[in-house]
Amino acid sequence: MTTPAVRDLRFLDPGVIARLGTMELKARTVVEGFLSGLHRSPYKGFSVEFAEYRQYLPGDDLNTLDWKVYARTDRHYVKKFEEETNLECHLLLDQSASMAYRGAAPMSKLEYGSVLAASLAFLMNRQRDATGLITFDEQIRFRLPAAARPGHVHAILLALERIQAGLRSDVARPLHQLAEALLKRSLVVVISDLLDDPDPVIKGLRHLKFRGTDVVVFQLLDPNELTFPFKGAAKFTDIETSEEVLADPARSRTEYLRELARLTLRYDRELRGAGIDYVQIDTSQPLDFALLTYLSARSRRK
Amino acid sequence: MGLLYPAFLLAAVAIAIPIALHLLRRDVAPDVPFTAVRLLKRSPVDRSRRRRLRDLLLLAARVAALLLLALAFARPFVPGSGSAMMPLRVVAVDRSFSMGAPGQFERARALARAAVDEATFGERVAVVAFDDRAEVLAPPGSRQDARQAIDRLAVGHGGTRYAAALSKAAELATGGPVRLVLVTDLQRAGWEGESRVRLPSSIDVEIRDTGIAAANAAIVAARLTDGALVASIRNAAAAPRQGQIVLTHDGAEAARASYSLEPGASADVPLAWKASAGSIVLTIDDPDGFPADNARHLVVGPALTPEVLVVTSAEAPGFYLQRALHAAADSGEEALAARLVTPAEIAGGRAAAIQRHRAVVLLTTRSLDRTAREALTAFVTGGGGLMIAAAPDVEPDVIATMFGWSGSALSADGEPRRASLAATDIRHPIFRPFGALATNLGNVRFTRAWRVAPDGWHVAARFDDGAPALLERTHGEGRIVLFASDLDRRWNDFPLHPAFVPFVVEAVRHVAARAAEPDLFVVGRVPPGVGAEPGVHRLESGRLVAVNVDPRESSTAVLTAEEFAAMIEQVEASPLSRAAEAEQIESRQSLWQYGLLLMLAVLVVESFVGRGN
Question: Which ipTM score applies to this complex?
Fold first, then answer.
């Protein structure tokens, strides 16, 4: 039996994905690779509504075998379920300047986030979930309403393909805007590096949650941001604010890592307390972890 | 401190580069774009004191390295500072064999010691011993070292040469005042053959005369004549002298003779002795004079018969050659009798007889067996002379094989031709006696000859068509003369011409004259590998040579101090010579090497300091 831990992650590796051509190809590769890895996994079936019968083929899960039909007809049929279609999903992708940072990872955070968003959109579309995309920096830059049409995913992929790094970020603002705009309970996936002031961000996310929306937060961080591996004194310039800090990593590293841990811990504590899934992702790591998180959040809604 | 090339110091302005970099880059760190600067801001960031110190160290090391490099190129030296400008006293002691008279050298030592003791405080003292060359026994230093050097002094076997001591003193002088104390017997022979010596004016010469032995008898020469050995004895004394001269042959007394000499006279004393090979020592008894010149050594080589071996055959009888040599003997010149032999007579075991002859003339190679050929080659290699006449009976291949020449170098003419002879090198020993008459050789008509490739040969005469006619070369120690046509009137009419007799006589005499190798040397001018001691020495080649003391040194004639001083010309050091002196001092000190080494060390330190982060 194959488990996610040991399956072939080749098609989920950021280094491989970064070299693929279009966003659709990337998303398809990620999703197909991911789903093939999920074969016979606990995440069996995504829907509860019955759709049709199909003749049993070797390899089908015996759990789906309809024994009553077998008793009547002496033939093996498996039950196919119609996927749920009433879920509305919103992908919120941060396109601020800091997301364009690419340190030691094969992709910038924005690229990684785009692929992640595309993969999620692809996955959602497969499940007939209505998917929407919002990209923002300090304000909402692009918005695609949620829809479950098969062609809708292409619009999302195209939008992700054309995405450019914007200005400084303000995560809280679009969150509030979205919270006000959402009429239906839905799933909101926030993809950002969350390097802003944490207070408004947490406030915004709580606002969303308060409106009855399920929220998954992916905090994308480059390995350089996670480990601060620099050597020799340097002038560190903020990409967004152009703020300059002269620092000697040998002396500043511990303090930096402590600050980062404090920030992460705060997000973790505050968001979990509010029932929000918070996942920190290293952009040098494969995408499957993010997808699994999504699926688990999705499954909780059932 | 002086600099040989101060212009290179301009390169030191390059130190501005690291200083400027240090000042400009002191707080400039590479710009690194980053995202979470907000988190970083709160980190305490400052430049540690250690780092600042490290930067200063790096700057100092780089500046020092550049300065040292510029300084090394400027070639620094310390001209007159320190010991170089301190007064120097050079005590030069004559150790030529004329100082060997009884009591003489002890006097010299005492005078030298006194000269050392007179050195004032701060004056460095050097001791030089000289005969025909000067040797520094104690370099400029303390009086104690100088005294010890004087204790080690011993009389040598060389002659006196004052110039050697003076130039050594000039060499020791480093710019400061020098007092040169010459302890010598003031022998006149020490200036013989020398021109005036130029000495820097900073050198002050003082003579300490030891006096010279009043009487001395010396054997100044010895030569072999027929049936006797003649020794020349000189009496350098104011009184007549009688005595005995003893000849020792290979360690055993062989002859003895009495001599009687007038004051200041020389005489030849014959000793009745049948010459035989070996080493000879002639000795006289002279208790008052110089001991070294009381013996004379001589080497007598093996005896040679004055015969020329002519290898002939029935076809090449050598008749004309024999008659020509006979005619020369009749005219009273040095007799070189021709001994005609056939190849059979020198074949096999009889080949060894070749070695006893003065020279060999080869008129045929037919039926010359291998032993005879090898003996001939060995004869030439060992110093013998060979004349080859290119007669019809002489095979070019055999000649070429005997001496290891290329086979194509020699070949006989196929077709008869008409040619005459022209001496191309009229200064060649064979043609020199001809003078202007050498042109008479042009009357000789040749019909055939050998063709000889002139590589490796010296061509003395050519045929009028340019082909070499008379060639000479050396082989081993010996000499080969090749006449490219015959001497028996078969390929030419040469024997009928008046030039034939002188030509043949001179050619044979030329090859018979062995390369005279000197077997007599004077101490100080000995060949390599021979000790500078009088006596009979064996060279590496096995040859015996006799080494004797220089007879000029046996003279007891002396100079006055004024005459001595007249031979010295004091010169001021010119600016040019000052520059040369600076260069000399610089090259002796070679401070630039230390500069570069120091620079390397500094750079190593710099790389270590720079690496530590």
Answer: 0.73
